[in-house]
Specification:
The complex is a heterodimer of chains A (254) and B (258). In chain A, 39% of the residues lie in helices and 25% in strands. Chain A has helices at 44-51, 74-81, 99-110, 115-128, 144-156, 174-191, 202-208, 226-230, 235-242, 249-253; strands at 4-15, 18-29, 33-37, 59-64, 67-68, 84-87, 162-166, 194-198, 211-216, 219-224. Chain B is mainly α. Helix content of chain B is 87%, strand content 0%. Chain B has nine helices and no strands. In chain B, helix 2 (39-50) runs parallel beside helix 6 (137-175) and helix 3 runs parallel beside helix 6 (137-175). Classes of the chains: A alpha/beta (254), B mainly alpha (258). At the A-B interface, helix 2 and helix 3 of A face helix 5 of B.
Chain lengths: 254, 258
């Protein structure tokens, strides 16, 4: 059985009185893509922010590749972050840099590589995500789907072992949504990365994920393969997947 | 009633102390990262924040010099003190008017721009993206802006003094009929180099205030367009207040008993 690369143990996070995560337990194995699904406002994106050190947990533990990262300093986090890439919900491309410079950003900040090597790496990454013709364009000139692709290329520039996706298909049309989902799967296979995919989108889950976790009320309430979720009789799972009014599920998701 | 008043006052004091403390921490963090700052980015910011402010600073100081001369020249001539007008204008411009008014103009133009830029980056998650890519926003964004504004303020002040005194001379000469030699001799007799250098030192301090306040407000902008707008306004207002308060203490420090 593959080792756990990411391990959340009884993870809690509160903003003042408001408890967002209330004891999340989740294991993500090496090389797998774990989708985290659930209604809006239940803490999906918050899990990613804890995993990358943007938010500090108020309880429980987070282990990344066996190391307890629950209470690291910013400098200690910076070392961990060099092995993690993140694709933000709204891409978060630097709007003062063009596409090529966005992708090259991390390489220039942390590695003293010759410029030819940086350019070659940028060209390869942009080709992988089908954006080789947009290298000199600025983020403001790109569509939502194009931004997500560039954001993925930027996240992969470091050669990360873990990639976190925060709603990568939100706001995209069905064709672009499927393209991005396939790209996530291809990235996993080509770069052998461990991924967490936060999404609402079950079609994306069926294409890109190996396993799925359903979060509700700040806790993981079900974990299984996409196929198990598709065929599940659990009212909570069926209620979320189909959006139907199912006794017990509708009230639970409120 | 009294209980609520005490609670409100206490909450305000705690909030004030928190903001002041966090701003001081940002200042110290920035100082610690100044050595590792990108020279290329700092020069870019100096051009963007400093050089591009020159026209508005020159216009403001030209008008200020001319107005100050209009207000004083004829009165001094009537008192038989026409030989002091040039010196009075130069001292007032060098010590006070140019540094403070340049500070106010730069706070309005640059402080607002810094707060809006960093605020927009905050609400569009670009600041988070920097951190995720193991890059300190203080080193990458704050330190170059801090250096750029603190270094460009004295330069703007030198130009402001030159144009302000030229405006003062122009008005004194053509409006109050004070001769060129009289005006220039007055500057030579009454002024010392420290009248200019002291103003430049004030400029460095005001530049530091403007950049740190602008960056702090931007980095702490709340979500949405309204949050960016509020951060921008707060940055300008707080910078100007701090410029006036610090000006008093700097003046005492630099000029009293000198």
């Amino acid at each position: 059985m593959a080792e756990s690369v990411i391990s959340l143990r009884n993870l809690e996070l509160a903003f003042g009185e408001k408890k967002v995560l209330q004891g999340v337990n989740l294991e993500v194995k090496k090389g797998e893509t774990m989708a985290v699904i659930g209604p809006s406002g239940t803490g999906k994106s918050t899990i990613l922010k804890v995993l990358i050190g943007l938010l500090a947990p108020t309880g429980g533990n987070v282990f990344i590749e066996g190391q307890d990262v629950s209470h690291l300093t910013e400098e200690e986090w910076n070392e961990i972050r060099k092995h993690i890439g993140m694709v933000f919900q709204y891409s978060a491309l630097f709007d003062f840099l063009d596409v090529g410079e966005n992708v090259a950003f991390g390489l220039r900040q942390h590695f003293r590589l010759p410029e030819e090597e940086v350019q070659k790496k940028v060209d390869d990454l942009l080709k992988d995500v089908g954006m080789e013709d947009a290298k000199s364009m600025y983020p403001v000139e790109l569509s939502g789907g194009m931004k997500k692709r560039v954001s993925l290329a930027r996240a992969l520039a470091f050669g990360p072992r873990i990639v976190l996706y925060d709603e990568p298909t939100a706001g995209l049309d069905p064709i672009r949504m499927m393209n991005i989902s396939r790209l996530i799967r291809e990235t996993q296979q080509k770069h052998k990365v461990t991924s967490i995919l936060v999404t609402h989108d079950m079609e994306s889950v069926y294409v890109a994920a190996d396993r799925v976790a359903l979060i509700n009320g700040g806790k993981i309430v079900a974990v299984g393969t996409p196929e198990e979720f598709r065929n599940s009789d659990d009212p909570l799972i069926r209620g979320f997947i189909t959006g139907e009014e199912i006794a017990g599920a509708t009230e639970a998701f409120r | 009633m009294l209980h609520e008043l005490c609670a409100m006052t206490g909450a305000w004091i705690i909030g004030f102390c928190q903001v002041t403390g966090r701003m001081m921490m940002l200042f110290l963090d920035t100082l610690s990262k100044v050595r590792t700052v990108s020279i290329k980015e700092t020069l870019r910011q100096m051009a963007l924040l400093g050089a591009d402010s020159l026209p508005i600073v020159l216009l403001t100081m030209l008008c200020t010099g001319m107005v100050f001369s209009v207000q004083t020249a004829k009165e001094f001539v009537a008192l038989g003190a026409s030989g002091t007008v040039g010196g009075i204008v130069a001292i007032a411009m060098g010590r006070e008017l140019v540094p403070v008014l340049t500070g106010v103009v730069v706070a309005g133009r640059i402080g607002a721009a810094i707060a809006a830029e960093l605020g927009t980056m905050k609400v569009t998650e670009q600041i988070d993206a920097l951190r995720v890519m193991a890059t300190s926003p203080v080193r990458y964004l704050v330190a170059p802006r801090f250096l750029a504004v603190a270094l460009m303020m004295p330069v703007l002040i030198v130009f402001g003094n030159f144009i302000g005194n030229a405006g003062g001379y122009f008005v004194a000469h053509y409006y109050a009929d004070i001769g060129s030699t009289t005006y220039l001799n007055s500057i030579r007799q009454l002024c010392e180099p420290f009248d200019l250098f002291g103003g430049m030192i004030k400029g460095v301090a005001f530049g530091a205030i403007i950049s740190i306040v602008g960056c702090f407000k931007g980095l702490n902008a709340k979500q949405g367009a309204e949050g960016v707008g509020l951060a921008t306004t707060a940055s300008v207002v707080l910078s100007i207040i701090l410029i006036f308060i610090s000006d008093y203490f700097l003046t005492v420090l630099l000029y009293v008993d000198k």
